[in-house]
Amino acid sequence: MTEATENTNHVPEVRVESNGPIVIRGNFSFRDSSGKIVSGEQEIRICRCGGSKEMPWCDDTHLIIGVPG
Amino acid sequence: MDKTDRNYSNGKITVFWQPKKCIHATTCYRELIDVFNPRKRPWVDMNGASTEEIIRVVKLCPTQALSFKYNEEIAEEKKPEPAEVLAEARVMEDGPLVLKGDFKIFDTDGTELRHLRMSSLCRCGRSDNLPYCDGTHRKIGFTGK
Lengths: 69, 145
Fold this sequence. Notes:
The complex is a heterodimer.
Chain A: H1 3-7, E1 13-16, E2 22-31, E3 37-46, H2 62-65
Antiparallel strand pairs in A: 1-2, 2-3
Chain B: E1 6-9, E2 13-17, H1 27-31, H2 51-60, E3 66-70, H3 71-78, E4 87-91, E5 97-101, E6 104-106, E7 112-113, E8 118-121, H4 136-140
Antiparallel strand pairs in B: 1-2, 2-3, 4-5, 5-8, 6-7
């Protein structure tokens, strides 16, 4: 393993927010449903109430319709 | 690499000189004294001949005390490997969010969830096993890119 890899090797964190989205932070690959991949350091918010109009992203619709758990 | 090793560059190639391998066969300076001149310091003058000519003579060295590499090749070797991505988050159409590889996953109350290689998290909001997917999205006809 190279030095560069070690330095950036933080394990990305996924937080399931109470009554909110799934938030993922860190160095990872994100693949959307069309197959497009974005890799690297990033932070994304994924809808988990099922009601976003900007899928897969959270657009705060959960504030209106609520998300269970 | 030995501390007596030397290298000489003309911008295009680098010639490596490993004195411990040299048996003084004299091939290099008999062939190309304008570049390889043991009476001069430094004894290798990379401006003394064309790159092609230097390469030709370096290849004649019987012991490989002289060797060379293209500078482009050296730059390529020095490049750090692209950081390996060990984790992938993937959105399944009309389905869950699939997390593969190294992630730390925290539940709504902050406790860390057990994650072995792969976890599927609910996106439809109707799973009976939140935050995990339990397949309910199929029953309710969830649609989501």
